[in-house]
């Protein structure tokens, strides 16, 4: 059953601080934490820019093997901070959204979706609008069973952005996408797992332990092959079967030239667990 919460998140209340994104390098793991708990981690323009910079840097960092995205405090992310964005009182120039958003919210979603590193997202509390789509764009999202995924665009009088109309139908089907986007239904973490929106829903106290186990598993994997497989999955969503298999061949050619491929064969021959290095 979908969860409905009486108190809607209000990213416009509380402190006027811009917030920040904490970037922590933990060995081969990059931890990105949204830090604006007084506004349910709603993304200010500086926070969005910080996410873009961190993900862009990670894309070319050969030492990284997995990315973790989460929020500080009780909530994951209440979406883009439209109050801060429109607080100047000046009428924006014609075409302002078309010029600006592709290099802001849309760029974050694109980077999460296409980066050739596995991305794990942890969700507690609210995941709203852009925040919901961040969780959907990650490769694996672990959420508390009582977390709330919500796409309130139409309730605010405007149409969806940040990949909502692309991500939702592919993950949950068109009918459920319409329920979330046209009717504004809130979906609990438990239902999000049932719908195929996320990887796993667990009790709130287990979110951290389950996430860390998954991060460790991915960090120990064949990083290049994981990235190529992720790319192949996304390519296949738009390709015919012959086209997808051709792309698989190119990816196979690359992955077979890695040190991890040699280690995988040696481990299989020697009947031992592989020790992948991500190279």
Automatic annotation (TrEMBL):
The record ties this protein, via InterPro entries, to: ClpP/crotonase-like_dom_sf, Enoyl-CoA_hydra/iso, Enoyl-CoA_hydra_C
UniProt-listed SUPFAM superfamilies: ClpP/crotonase
Q: Name one GO molecular function term.
A: catalytic activity
**Short name of one Pfam family for this protein?**
ECH_1
Q: Which family does it belong to?
A: Belongs to the enoyl-CoA hydratase/isomerase family.
Q: Which PANTHER family does its entry note?
A: EG:BACN32G11.4 PROTEIN, ENOYL-COA HYDRATASE
Full protein name: Enoyl-CoA hydratase
């Amino acid at each position: 059953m979908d969860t409905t919460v009486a108190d809607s998140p209000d990213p416009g209340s509380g402190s006027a601080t811009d917030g920040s994104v904490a970037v922590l390098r933990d060995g081969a793991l990059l931890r990105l934490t949204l830090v604006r708990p007084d506004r349910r981690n709603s993304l200010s323009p500086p926070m969005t820019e910080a996410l873009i910079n961190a993900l862009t840097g990670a894309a070319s960092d050969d030492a990284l093997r997995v990315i973790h995205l989460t929020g500080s405090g009780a909530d994951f992310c209440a979406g883009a901070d439209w109050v801060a964005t429109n607080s100047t009182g000046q009428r924006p120039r014609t075409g302002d959204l078309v010029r600006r958003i592709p290099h802001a919210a849309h760029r974050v979603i694109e980077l999460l979706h296409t980066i050739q590193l596995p991305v794990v997202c942890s969700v507690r509390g609210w995941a709203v609008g852009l925040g919901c789509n961040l969780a959907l764009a990650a490769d694996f999202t672990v959420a508390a069973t009582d977390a709330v995924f919500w796409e309130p665009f139409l309730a605010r009088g405007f149409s969806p952005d940040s990949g909502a109309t692309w991500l939702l139908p592919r993950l949950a089907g068109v009918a459920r996408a319409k329920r979330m986007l046209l009717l504004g239904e809130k979906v609990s973490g438990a239902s999000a797992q049932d719908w195929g929106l996320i990887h796993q829903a667990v009790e709130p106290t287990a979110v951290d332990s389950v996430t860390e186990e998954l991060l460790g598993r991915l960090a120990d994997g064949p990083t290049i092959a994981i990235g190529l497989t992720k790319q192949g999955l996304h390519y296949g969503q738009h390709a015919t079967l012959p086209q997808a298999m051709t792309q698989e061949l190119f990816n196979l050619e690359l992955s077979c030239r890695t040190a991890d491929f040699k280690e995988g064969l040696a481990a299989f021959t020697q009947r031992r667990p592989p020790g992948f290095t991500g190279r």
